[in-house]
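agent: user wants the structure for Formimidoylglutamate deiminase from Bradyrhizobium vignae. delegating to structure tool.
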Amino acid sequence: MTRLHFASALLPSGWANDVQVVVAAGAIAAVTPGVAPAAGDERHAIALPGLASLHSHAFQRGMAGLAELRGDSTDTFWTWRETMYRFALAMTPDDVAAVATLLYVEMLEQGFTRVGEFHYLHHDPDGSPYTDLAEMAARIAQAAEASGIALTLLPSFYAHSSFGGAAPHAGQRRFICSVDQFAELMTASRKTIANLPDANIGIAPHSLRAVTPDELRAIMPLADGGPVHIHAAEQVKEVEDCLAWSGRRPVQWLLEHAPVDRRWCLIHATHTTDAEIAAFARTGAVAGLCPITEASLGDGIFPAREFLDAGGTFGVGTDSNVLVGIADELRQLEYGQRLKHRQRNVLSGGAGRSTGRTLFDNALAGGARALAQPIVGLAPGARADIVTLDSAHPSLAGRSGDAAIDGWIFAADNGAIDCVWAGGHKVVEGGGHKLRRVARERFNTVVRRLVA
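agent: tool returned. relaying tokens verbatim.
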């Protein structure tokens, strides 16, 4: 049992002072505000709950910054994707483990305590299944266990290169499964994470480009009540191709033909109409927003203000992992809206409200729903995922409550987070993860070879 005492802590009911939190068996056993620190309490200034990165492709951390050289033609998501395919074809299972371990270390240092791993790098480089179909998923689980981050594994079904069941092309060969093969992969993946603390599993039909309607119906039972994640309407070309195939836009098609509900997370949903946004919000499905990646790839700007006004729920993910950070994602989300609407504090939710706090609360709730976490936050019964901020940081000095969150998200650098507990274990102290040095050395060795 561990006793922690915080001068200030963000509880589900709001900010409270002099809060004692008792941690036992990886969970929060008790939360008591308004008490003086007792002998043996570990004392900190400002405590927040950890958040989830609800959408990650871990292997892409290895290529971060390697697609910034413009070619002769227009550079878009589709040209970036070719670079990604070449990188993916070169990685061994050990490479994926090393890259994912550093990524998860970095996520924890930035306050992410759970990751939704949208995992589609399944097979051998020539496209042949490994003897253990879940060989690559096992490396993701290995990285999660080593770092301490909680894992929601989302094996991705990927069968086609475009709408209407088009044959996959060679660069996608490590991703491709038949429905029967995917069923076997799901069984193997469940076994892989069975003994991983606090892990769970869902399914991820990659996109309407990669999955036919018949295949989508066939794989849905494999979710077994777990979360369902899908990429949707990320690019204008994707919307145009979907219209040509079906007469419907991607989000429109999903809302009309798929059982979209609170278990679902539509990743990106960038290019949506007002009618789609209103209908999407009514389902209770989560908008999985990845503002850094969406900016990096030139995707566009999600209509976040309209979605929130319609009662929608969002969470954030790190997607391509070109830059990892809660503050980075939430700041980019708000700044994109400011540029779009030419206003400030667009997503605050109303006059006199803190934009940082509103963003944080939404991301906490949306991430929990998208990754099927019934209890989150600094509350009894929740996994003990706790983040402390350094009150001596120049952007936090003299600030408390919502002002501290605003200072962290909009004004601080990477030094604002002091400690992080994941599942009750202190994995980050003084801003650094206990595996940082070893994880970086392994990562650098792998990436130097892959780049060469």
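agent: one observation worth passing along. The CA atoms of residues 221 and 397 lie 51 Å apart.
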